[in-house]
Amino acid sequence: MIDSVLATSNSARETVLWIASDLFYRGGVRAVGMELIVERSGVAKTTIYRHFPTKDALIEAFLEREDHDFWRQWEAVVGSHAGEPRRALSALCDWIGDRVSRDSYRGCPQINVAAEFADVGHPARKVAHRHKSEMVERLTALCRELDMSTAPLRAHQIGLLFDGAFMSNGRLGNVGAAWILNDAVERLVGS
């Protein structure tokens, strides 16, 4: 009995998070109300608030899920080129280029949500800040593998390029986002 209650509870939580994530990404977190999430998920508001005590907690869970999924994909891309930092950087450019060229792509969820909240103490801003810091740390590690004395600087520059691509609003899709990123990163790290 307890197992079925827990399974139902976890299922409701995942349903709400899945629906909210889709709505938040497509419409922005401020534009999506809890009533719409209740309506689309079919989960009672009391159940939603049992799992997510506030809308901010739901937004934070959305960004945490996006963060986890992003790093899982990043690891797969970089991991397929272990010990080959130049090829790993190129593969990241290809992956990001493909990502930002999708028809449904609406920008980086972390940047989008952070832009909606002015308060740097907001949970969403904290998750977004941690996500972007993590990107610079990972890029620094790749640049250090290239024996670059300027690894932290180059990592920040590459991070800015990636963030620019994430916010390109599809402009790079028809001109070759991966090619543009690869060319820029190559110029930064040298051949």
TrEMBL record:
Residues 10-70 form the HTH tetR-type domain. Pfam families: TetR_N (PF00440). Keywords: DNA-binding. Coiled coil: none annotated. PROSITE patterns: HTH_TETR_2 (PS50977). Residues 33-52 bind DNA. SUPFAM superfamilies: Homeodomain-like, Tetracyclin repressor-like, C-terminal domain. Gene3D superfamilies: Tetracycline Repressor, domain 2 (1.10.357.10). PANTHER family: HTH-TYPE TRANSCRIPTIONAL REGULATOR RUTR (PTHR30055), HTH-TYPE TRANSCRIPTIONAL REPRESSOR BDCR (PTHR30055:SF200). This is TetR/AcrR family transcriptional regulator.
